[in-house]
Amino acid sequence: MATTRLRRTFRYPADSDDEDAVEEGMDERDQEELITSLSSHDTSSTKLYTQLLLLLPLLPALLYLPRLFAFRTILPSLAAIASLLASAYTLYFLPLPPVSPSSSTAQHKGKATARDRVTGAKSFSFIPQESQPVPYLSPETADLLRQYMIPVNAALCAILCITELAQRRSWGEGMMIGGGYVPGFVLTFILWARRELRVVDLGELERLRYRTKGG
Fold it and tell me: pLDDT tens across 175-214, in order?
């Protein structure tokens, strides 16, 4: 009997026990405050990470500008600048749509871990992320850009890479400013970061809360 009691005393709680304790210990007002806090924190942190990542395509684009004044490098430099600006546009104006919590748990572990290292606190992503309005463009034109921006940019990066290979330059030279591999590398990283910044639909959390309340 003593052994049985000792084992019960040191029994580790299961995940379901933690969820039941949270549901029993939080009323409707506490849940609303928690959701609001999570939404506010995720909005500010996602915006900060997006702005920081914009430096990756924009800084090289500025460094390509002096190469526009040389006849031999004007065309590849224009192509590289166009690709880098398109990558910046994709990151800022074309965020991926929100996903349901069940399908994005594993994906957002890396995002939450990275943010914890900066903020020192545990964070979650529970708000929908809408596309930024495109200035000076009609909704129809903006939709066309959302549809074709990434494929056209990828094709442009492929042409620059093929040109770099045809010139038989070293890998190190191709990854420097003026090299043909830079736009492709930036686009690949931006697409990965864009996926990591994908958020979880807050509507799913709201429906879960009301379903728990109704039950």
Answer: 998 899 999 999 999 999 998 887 665 666 666 655 555 5
The CA distance from 52 to 56, in Å, is 8
The answer to whether the CB of 123 falls within 8 A of the CB of 200 is: no
Q: Which two tokens stand for residue 49?
A: 């990470």
Amino acid at 213: K
DSSP letter (8 states) at residue 66? G
Q: State the DSSP string of 160-188.
A: HHHHHHHTT--HHHHTSTT-SSHHHHHHH
Residue 14's SS3 state is: coil
Ordered DSSP codes for 121-160 = S-----S--PPPPPTT--HHHHHHHHHHHHHHHHHHHHHH
CA 19 vs CA 14, 94, 120, 127: distances in Å: 9, 35, 24, 21
What is d(CA 206, CA 199) in angstroms, rounded to the nearest whole number? Answer: 15
Q: What is the pLDDT of residues 34-50, one digit of tens each?
A: 767 776 777 778 888 99
Question: Are 200 and 104 a contacting pair, CB within 8 Å?
Answer: yes
User: In sequence order, what are the beta bridge partners of 189?
Assistant: none
Closest by CA to 49, choosing from 204, 200, 198, is 198
Contacts of residue 85, Cβ cutoff 8 Å, sequence gap at least 6: 57, 58, 61
Tokens of 39: 């939404």
